[in-house]
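In this section we walk through a basic example: taking a raw amino acid sequence and producing a predicted 3D structure, encoded as discrete structure tokens. The instruction is simple. Fold the sequence below.
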Amino acid sequence: MALKIYTKGERVLRAEAMAIDARELRCGRDVGQFAKTATKLKEILERFLETLCCLDRCFVSADWLEALSSPSKVGTTQVGGIDFNRARMRWVARALLALSVRPGGFTASQLAQLVRGQSSGVDSQYGPRQAAYDLQKFRGKKLVCQMKGGRRYETLPAGLRTISALLLLRDQVLAPLLASTANGNDFVVSAESTLLDRLYGELRGTIRQVLDHLGFAA
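The resulting token sequence is shown next.
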């Protein structure tokens, strides 16, 4: 199966879900099952678009940041919190975002495969058992849920917004600002710079003054 989204002229954005092999949908392949196949593809496309909307409008509250690393419960089992300062947790979070568009959810084995692909051999022993353990942590925070009737999981809409917000704040806001403050180089904005580059330039100047006022030594 394939999902794609692309522009169709200046004002049209087109999204498509395609079954390259209809057997993957498990609806049957004869003409009489065409309505079921179309409905299944519609559900896949809606899930894809819902995921994009959540990623585009991500959010995390200050209270939730405080509670993130605290233990939680899945049923009667107590599980640990989520520490985004650990590379392994960030790998798991990115893998959850990537797997969120899969129809029918994903398995612990599929999560483990994506985590190993990000670790570049550092965590080559990461397997389904470790993935299931980490999934318990995300389930405890109501970011991921286990689907009915099997050992498959899906990332909840609130989980998509929270996970993408945490990764965005760390990778695209905090890390670049601290790096620019530490090197002390002036940020040159050229005529070809994007709007985001110009906003970063303004923010770098302001944040340096804030850190100086608070006694943060660059």
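Looking at the output, two observations stand out. Residues 2-56 form one domain. The chain has three domains: 2-56, 62-165, 184-214. In the next section we compare this with other chains.
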